[in-house]
Amino acid sequence: RAKEAGKNQYAFFAAEMTQVAKERLKLEVKLRKAFEQQELFLNYQPRVNMKTGKMAGMEALMRWLDLDLGSVSPAEFIPLAEETGLIVPMGKWALQTACRQTREWQHMGLKNLTLSVNISTLQFQQADVVEMILGVLQETGLDPHFLELELTESLFMVERVEAIRKLNLLVEKGIQISIDDFGTGYSSLNYLRYLPVNVIKIDKEFMRNIGKLAYDEALAEAIIAMAHSLNLRVVAEGIETETQYRFIRAKGCDEMQGYFFSEPVDAITFETLAFHVQADQVKVALI
Ligand code: C2E
Ligand code: MG
Ligand code: MG
Ligand code: MG
């Protein structure tokens, strides 16, 4: 095969490309079908208040279980959905489903949990995104104060003025805004001053080497301190170990999310866990 390729490198690469493109197209068709046939679902991952040890809320995370492919990671299918534009209807579906579910949990007695939903940059760039979000709140009956939208820094690189205008309309209604994967994108911090943002979520990349690398610990500590000096709440993502947990607690981090407390789980499992935590049966073990 290498010999053939040597003879005609262009054809070789073209064939390879076609193979990759074919695979992508196949996955795209499968994803579209899965979405249309309502095979996607949401998992929920608890967010824990570091001071009280109680559950502060949950992040809704999309899941896709395919019969042939098994569980496909969002890291794979979300970028695909973004490239094809499918993220717009998919994202709306996720918001509707999660708001409806949160409303149900409130009726069952799980009050005071804030729902976080990821909103893709492409989705937020839609001209009618504000109407869409407010419409979903209205139709599901969820109080805007219980909704937090997770946006990424990439949004503010392209359409900053327009994005801020939309954010203000949402914040006016009581919706909270967080910057997800903080620290991995746009490097200038100056943009923060223009944003009606309440929360930053430190990317799990910064948590990975806590207890291992002093440099990374210094970086994590600096991000927490900076956020606090700007009056932002800080959520640490990807807390997997007791060492990480103790570190961020010592640094005054407000909330945590990670396997150390719980992985993202299906709605029924989340509900059971939330009731136990609310009844103080499962306070975060180490607080
Ligand atoms: P994200 O918004 O940063 O979500 C957090 C990711 O970290 C989730 O990955 C979660 O499962 C994972 N995680 C949580 N705790 C830990 C931990 O302790 N260790 C490690 N290693 N990972 C942890 P997931 O569910 O695979 O989702 C990946 C990304 O896909 C999300 O990152 C988000 O950007 C995107 N995504 C997922 N659902 C949606 C959605 O409904 N809409 C949009 N636009 N994007 C979504
Ligand atoms: Mg997120
Ligand atoms: Mg995200
Ligand atoms: Mg994140």
Automatic annotation (TrEMBL):
The keyword Transcription regulation does not apply. Residues 24-278 form the EAL domain. Keywords: Membrane, Transmembrane, Transmembrane helix. This is Diguanylate cyclase.
